[in-house]
Design a protein that fits this description.
InterPro entries: PolX-like_BBD (IPR054722). It holds the Pfam family Pol_BBD. By secondary structure, the chain is mostly beta strands. It has one domain. It is built from 1 helix and 4 strands. The longest helix has 6 residues. The termini are far apart. 0% of the residues are buried. The model has no long low-confidence stretch (mean pLDDT 90).
């Protein structure tokens, strides 16, 4: 299995890979974004997205009013 760490430094083991589609708010509407080669770990009860990986692939993100 491949290991990865969450933002809180907790380590998880991925037991598989696949694809998911996530809804991304774009300011007016919601766009669907397909993420491929994602890691699956049954230990993680939520979806983690690496902003660094998205940046590597040319995406940008804006966080505001949080």
């Amino acid at each position: 299995p491949k290991s990865f760490r969450a933002a809180n430094k907790q380590k998880f083991d991925a037991v598989g890979t696949g694809s998911i589609t996530v809804d991304v708010p774009n300011g007016v509407d919601v766009s669907k974004l397909e993420l491929t080669k994602v890691l699956y770990s049954p230990e993680v009860g939520y979806t983690l997205v690496s902003m660094g990986k998205l940046d590597d692939h040319g995406f940008t993100a804006t966080f505001a009013d949080g």
